[in-house]
Amino acid sequence: MLNLKGKQVYLRALEPEDLDFLYQLENDTSIWEISGTLKPYSKKVLRFYLENAHRDIYDVKQLRLCICNMKSDCVGLIDIFDFDPKHKRAGMGIVIAKTDERNKGIGAEAISLVCDYAFSLLDLHQLYANILEENEASIHLFEKMGFEKIGVKKEWIRTSTGFKNELMFQKINSNAS
């Protein structure tokens, strides 16, 4: 039986009660650059999103999970996106909301749980992550979790200060068929 619970965190589906957390996180302009967000989200739009978050990953090609500490506080989100069952691959993204919660092993444990889920239950062959070249913390995290840098997308992300390179990291499921 697959368990989405680690020593520090567990992963769970989004709930209607997550609206305020999601609203705060999605409207945090400091992470817009990495999330590709261009404008604020209204609570109405996010409420509609939450009402449809139950849809199957095979239908919507993505899955977003809350990262919760053992006190049941939601501390971040982890996503599987661009789910491609034919080629057995998907992208992965993660955000820990508060900076004082980062670098404590929470992200590593959440990534480990999602890798187990994706490789065991979804039978994926590979996961990948796209990370801005300057995001040293995320690069370190994904490398620590066994992701390998496989390329550079030059001047890929347009920001207010110009174009930035994006690195692509990949983890192959060594047990995949």
Topology:
Layout (H helix, E strand, L loop, with lengths): L8 E5 L5 H8 L5 H4 L7 H9 L5 H4 L2 E7 L4 E11 L4 E8 L9 H16 L4 E7 L3 H9 L3 E12 L2 E11 L5
Parallel strand pairs: 4-5
Antiparallel strand pairs: 1-2, 2-3, 3-4, 5-7, 6-7
Helix pairs in contact: 1-3
InterPro entries: Acyl_CoA_acyltransferase, GNAT_dom
Keywords: Transferase
Pfam families: Acetyltransf_3
Please explain how this structure is put together.
28% of the residues lie in helices and 34% in strands. The protein has 6 helices and 7 strands, in the order E-H-H-H-H-E-E-E-H-E-H-E-E. A 7-stranded mixed beta sheet has the order 1-2-3-4-5-7-6. Helix 5 (106-121) links the parallel strand 4 and strand 5 (126-132). The chain is globular and about 40 Å long. The protein starts with 8 loop residues before the first strand and ends in a 5-residue tail after the last strand. The model has no long low-confidence stretch (mean pLDDT 89). Keywords: Transferase. Residues 9-173 form the N-acetyltransferase domain.
Outline of this structure?
28% of the residues lie in helices and 34% in strands.
Major sheet characteristics: 7 strands, mixed
Distance between the termini: 20 Å
User: Portion of residues in helices?
Assistant: 25-40%
Which parts are unreliable, with pLDDT below 50 for 5 consecutive residues or more? none
Spatial strand sequence of the major β-sheet? 1-2-3-4-5-7-6
The portion of residues forming beta strands comes to 25-35%
The topology string of helices and strands comes to: EHHHHEEEHEHEE
CATH T-level fold name: Aminopeptidase
Global mean pLDDT: 89
What radius of gyration results from the CA coordinates?
A: 16 Å
Count of discrete alpha- or pi-helical segments spanning 4 or more residues: 6
By DSSP, the count of extended strands is 7
CATH architecture: 3-Layer(aba) Sandwich
* Name of the CATH superfamily: Gcn5-related N-acetyltransferase (GNAT)
CATH class: Alpha Beta
Shape: globular
Give the helix/strand class. alpha+beta
> How many distinct domains?
1
Pfam families: Acetyltransf_3 (PF13302)
Keywords: Transferase
Protein name: Diamine N-acetyltransferase
Domain N-acetyltransferase: 9-173
